[in-house]
Task: structure prediction
Amino acid sequence: MAKLLHIHRRTDSMSFTPKDFTVWIEIPVRDLDKAVEYYARVTGADLIPEEIGPNRTARFPTAAKGVAGHLYEGAPAPEGAGPTIHLMFDGPLETALERVWEAGGKVVSDPISIPDGRFAYTLDPDGNSIGLFEAA
Result:
């Protein structure tokens, strides 16, 4: 018998609106050293090696604490099947997309314009779905 999930709905007029809704991302990769090289090349950022618990990781650098993420050695979802994470990068979108191809990833969409900027969907060498976002 299937269990029913009870969803609590707020009845007051208050709404939870944090400064940043996403506070941490984790991208699983098969080979951390190769992935660090890939993401550094694509984004222009120097990832920061760290030991977190039993795991070797590489953190994406940020100017402020709170919103960040890291790469870790793990089992990625099948190509393009996991969630999509959107990342910032250095330079214009077209340049970042060229770097994706050069570094061994795939560009899987043309640039898409939205009110906040432009982005394109890519796949890293492990098949993770990564959007590259250029703010307006």
Summary: The chain has a mean pLDDT of 90.
